[in-house]
Amino acid sequence: MKRFSLSKIILAFVLSLTLIFPYLNVTALADSVTITQDQLNIVNPFITQAATTFASLPYNQREEVVQKVRNFVNGNISQTTSNLLNSIANTLSSINTTNYNVTADNIVLLAQAMKTFITSDKRKSILDQIESGTITDVTLKPKDIDTDALSSFNDAHSNVINFLIDNVQTGSLLNLIQEHHNNLRIDDNFKVYYALGDTVYSLDDISKNQDLKDLANELLKDMGNNLTLDDIVTAADSFSSAARGLSSDNQNLLRAVLNAYGIQNYTPSNGSGNNSGGSSGSGTIGGGSSSSGTEVTEVGTLVASSNVDLTKETTVASSDNAISLYIPAGVITNNDGSTLKVSINVLDDTQAKTIADKVNIASLTLLGKVYEFYFKATKDGKDTYISSFDKPITVKLSLNGIDTTKYDPKKISLFKIDNDTAIYKGGKYDKTTNTITTKLYGFSTYALMYYNKTFKDISNHWAKSDIEYMASKHITDGITSDTFNPEGNVTRAQFAAFLIKLLNVPYQTKATPFTDVKSSDWYYNDVTTAYNIGLVKGISSDKFAPNDNITREQMAAMALDALKYMGKDTAISQDEVTKFLAQYKDTKDVSGWAKEAVAASVKYNIMNGMTQVTYSPLSTSTRAQAIAVISRLFDMQ
Asked: Which residues fall in a compositionally biased region of kind Gly residues (predicted)?
């Protein structure tokens, strides 16, 4: 499950209750607003997720925060509440990946919307459920909305409401947000971009490149709607134009609403829409993607290069073996007769220090050199730079020269440097060779960095080492900035997300049969990808049960499939199944479908029994237990 600091959780809850804005049926602002259940159903998954996250807080924190929220929505606005709202605004403004300039006044406005639009009975029910720690039903129905109050609010804030109704509910952009919100980026001028793999494109660039345009239209077709890329480009242009016409305060409010959808802010590095950036999105483009429309100036000093023959494996390594790239045969499939060349450049000390000064924080430290990787295709004297691949390229970096007595080598990883932000890209330590290895699906600027993160509630916990290890690999976060809640439960969707982060695979776009996994859910990309690469199955033909707590036998099955995906041996004979299960008294409790998985989990030391004589296959897993399994899998890669 995606974890946030306390203030972000509160913000998510407040924002989720204001997301009804885009779906209101408003004919005239002075008239009463009509809201249908279909419109609320778009918003309800956000509300349920936010409330569930809020309810999962440790009781002492939950009790304190709920009381503050009660005071606010009941009209008792205290200095404490003011400080709380300001801390939320400060937290949101400090998020590197979004960098929204949201003021406390904007947050008060959003909180006021929650206070005003939701009937008092429904507000009380939601807060009671959060306070109890058990969410039964927080979904909104039309009767839960105070339409008179909403109409009055519309009158007072018509610019933003009109904008959202006119430009988000135009169908095409609404569909784009619903289906692609994790892939969308918005720049400071509200221009719309789309992330494919490790590359961010402007919609203009996609529409001008026939290969990309065909791909985008295929993706839209696969989603079962009648949209085309041209429809989306038209809607996005209207969106951008209207947004630029808003006042500064209302632009900030709009950014806050967009953030609630998961849409990230984006700053092009050179003013063009085709840059390496963003996070794992819809997967790499078939045949590899290129930056032929962008002028690329190679920087740094060349330390290694080699021509690439797509029919063979290629190794590119520096003379001192400080860095090596292993390029598989068929790394791209769209070769048109171009000469292909991969180069490794290293930035000088001044350039590296500039980057270090920007990305180093209390728990993150840049170590060693900063590298630029280039994959260039040359034909008829014209250079094209390939930015994403069909198969991953393996990079290995030596830790020679890095003080591994000061920096635990298991917590050193490769990071991509994008717009002064460090983005984790994996890294497994090999003690024998003293190297870090990971796989890349795209090229950009990279450096080794040390990430050391701990939590105040694991200081004496048996899983402390595993939790810190996986936190350093950005596979797990705390439920707040300094608490992990090791004994909390883990859902099926959360464990699937752990596995996708572990394997560091690009998100897949092919739909799943699961009707309970929707594009607005935080776990949509993780579950969809896990299903498409064979890591997860449903509890029925069309249900995944993402929010059910995962059982130990389900976790064993998913973990074993992850091991298979790594290419590791997971074979087990029927005699071995009998032998490994026989050591547990509760073997009869193992479901028939799970017997091989449970036995194999023991054979390959992925999971052990809860005791020496019990496996507890139907028990649910704690966060600490799940991370211990993920830690073992990580070391098996």
From this structure: 274-290
The rounded distance, in Å, linking the Cα atoms of 395 and 458 is 33
Domain-ending residue, one of 419, 451, 483? 451
The pLDDT assigned to 227 comes to 64
Task: Spell out the alpha helix ranges (H) of 523-594.
Answer: 524-532, 552-565, 574-582
229-243 pLDDT, tens digit per residue, is 777 677 677 667 667
Q: What is the CATH number of the domain that holds 354?
A: 2.60.220.30
* pLDDT given for residue 479 in this prediction: 76
Stated as kind and residue range, the H or E segment containing 393 is strand 382-398
Domain that holds residue 357: 301-451
SS (H, E, C) 448-503: EEEECCCCCCCCCCCCHHHHHHHHHCCCCCCCCCCCCCCCCECEHHHHHHHHHHHH
Q: Is residue 212 part of a domain?
A: yes
Residues 481 and 443 in one domain: no
Structural tokens at position 604: 């390959």
User: Is 181 part of any domain?
Assistant: yes
Encode 289-329 in three state secondary structure: EECCCCCCCCCCEEEEEEECCCCCCEEEECCCCCEEEEECC
User: 325-362 burial, b for 16+ CB within 10 Å, e for fewer?
Assistant: bbbbeebbebbeebebbbbbbbbeeeebeebbeebeee
Distances (CA, A) of 491 to 57, 621, 634: 15, 9, 20
Whole-angstrom CA distances from 478 to 451, 468, 485 are 15, 10, 7
pLDDT value at residue 75:
55
Q: Which residues pair with 301 in a beta bridge?
A: 346
Both 445 and 475 in one domain: the answer is no
Report the range out of 177-191, 513-527, 599-613 with the highest average pLDDT.
Answer: 599-613
Q: For residues 511 and 632, state if they share a domain.
A: yes
Ramachandran angles phi, psi of 315, nearest 5°: -115, 130
Residue 5 lies in a domain: no
| Between 295 and 627, residue with greater pLDDT | 627
| For residue 316, pLDDT beyond 90 | yes
Asked if residue 242 and residue 172 are part of one domain, the reply reads yes
325 close to 397: Cβ distance less than 8 angstroms: no
Q: What band does 6 get if pLDDT is binned at 50, 70 and 90?
A: very low
List helix spans (H) across 210-365: 210-222, 229-244, 248-260, 349-359
pLDDT in tens, 150-173: 666 556 554 444 444 444 433 334
| Structure letter (DSSP) for residue 271 | S
Looking at the fold, whether 338 and 390 belong to one and the same domain comes out as yes
Taking the C-alpha atoms of residue 177 and residue 175, their distance in angstroms, rounded to an integer, is 5
Q: How confident is the model at residue 5 (pLDDT cuts 50, 70, 90)?
A: very low
Number of domains into which the chain is organized: 3
